[in-house]
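Changelog-adjacent note: as of this version, every example in the card shows the full chain rather than a window. The one below runs 78 residues end to end.
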Amino acid sequence: MSLTQRFFKAIMPKKWFEAAEADSRRWVFTCPCGNEQSIWDSGGIRWKAAGKSKTGIRCLACGKFGLQTLEKQGTGME
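Full-length structure tokens:
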């Protein structure tokens, strides 16, 4: 768990934190190499958000840093 995630765990009610973690696991970065990783696994939190964006991040599979698409899975937005 990242420092950011531990911080939110310490200040949020347990039920809210569990909802934030579940929602964050549905937000996925997609690298041009085809690898997908959740924002939660990347150390971040994205809760009650909407939309689709591009974010600079290093891919865990190919090791390259670049813009990756971030979108929520399981909502018909894929």
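Structural remarks: The longest helix spans residues 14-26.
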